């Protein structure tokens, strides 16, 4: 199996750095191939601008239409070299692992910029089948690949629970799990979430690294999150769930078909409870 690991953390000497090292060693032990995109180390440019597609045709208006320019440059192999390199890694990979600290309920800007610049129209989305139907939500340019989030948060696990002040972690990560991964056809796996990460001890970091190592052993076998396919018959022509689909449910949970839509946490994850930790040897 071939794994592309996208790492978005500014400090390699951190808990996240430890998890990255552990993850890569585990993949080696399992006989998997891997490549790493360490975005901060690469000096990744986080903003979309005209330099991404310098040969784009702006027409008579001179206006840059980003989606059209991206697709034109992609199809003409005229995207900037850094974008093309990342797309080649994606095409090579069977599984994409996205590792980042959760900042302001989302990934760091550098990773958001990776999504914006790399998953361009014509490559990851905007494709159509022979009948002219747009392929998305369970179909698209990245169909057949799996995606796993490895993320750390400073808050305790209970505050991300069903009644926690931050909201359930599956809802916080829904824009990535559903709106990015599933939209482009990637099968999203339940995220690996480390709670209380900025208060962990070296012993706690070791426990978490071991939990991640165990989790990676399931990359090929675990069932993805049970999101509904857009073309599966559950949505009407306005892309709204039909009355018979998920009756009595609304919001994020309604777009999953499993019996327990609000629970994404896995039993093999080892949360770090902040009330029991006091040392701060490792930044999150």
UniProtKB/TrEMBL annotation:
Question: The Flavodoxin-like fold domain covers which part of the protein?
Answer: 1-209
**Annotated segments matching region Disordered:** 244-269
Extract the Pfam families matched here. Flavodoxin_2
Query: SUPFAM superfamilies attached here?
Result: Flavoproteins (SSF52218)
One GO CC term, this protein: cytosol
A GO MF term: NAD(P)H dehydrogenase (quinone) activity
Q: Which UniProt keywords apply?
A: Oxidoreductase
The residue ranges flagged as biased composition, category Basic and acidic residues, are: 255-268
Which PANTHER family is this protein grouped with?
Answer: NAD P H OXIDOREDUCTASE-RELATED (PTHR10204), NAD(P)H DEHYDROGENASE [QUINONE] 1 ISOFORM 1 (PTHR10204:SF34)
Family designation: Belongs to the NAD(P)H dehydrogenase (quinone) family.
Q: Can you say what this protein is called? A: Flavodoxin family protein
Q: Which organism is it from?
A: Streptomyces boluensis
Classification lineage:
Bacteria, Bacillati, Actinomycetota, Actinomycetes, Kitasatosporales
């Amino acid at each position: 199996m071939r794994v592309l690991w996208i790492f978005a953390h500014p400090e390699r000497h951190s808990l996240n750095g430890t998890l990255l090292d552990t993850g890569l060693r585990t993949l080696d032990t399992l006989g998997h191939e891997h490549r790493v995109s360490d975005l901060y180390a690469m000096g990744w440019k986080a903003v979309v601008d005209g330099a991404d597609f310098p040969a784009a045709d702006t027409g008579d208006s001179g206006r840059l239409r980003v989606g059209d320019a991206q697709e034109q440059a992609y199809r003409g192999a005229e995207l900037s070299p850094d974008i093309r390199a990342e797309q080649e890694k994606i095409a090579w990979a069977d599984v994409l692992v996205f590792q980042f600290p959760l900042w302001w309920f989302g990934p760091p800007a550098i990773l958001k910029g990776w999504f914006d610049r790399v998953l361009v129209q014509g490559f990851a989305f905007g494709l159509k089948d022979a009948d002219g139907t747009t392929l998305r939500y369970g179909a698209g340019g990245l169909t057949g690949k799996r995606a796993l989030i490895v993320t750390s948060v400073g808050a305790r696990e209970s505050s991300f629970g069903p009644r926690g002040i931050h909201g359930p972690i599956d809802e916080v990560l829904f824009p990535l799990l559903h709106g990015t991964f599933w939209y482009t056809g990637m099968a999203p796996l339940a995220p690996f979430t480390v709670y209380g990460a900025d208060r962990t001890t070296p012993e706690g970091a070791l426990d978490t690294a071991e939990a991640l190592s165990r989790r990676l052993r399931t990359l090929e076998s675990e069932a993805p999150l049970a999101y509904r396919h857009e073309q599966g018959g559950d949505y009407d022509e306005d892309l709204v769930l039909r009355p018979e689909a998920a009756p009595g449910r609304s919001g994020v949970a309604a777009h999953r078909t499993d019996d327990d839509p609000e629970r994404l946490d896995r039993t093999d994850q080892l949360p770090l409870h902040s009330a029991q930790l006091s040392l701060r040897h490792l930044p999150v």
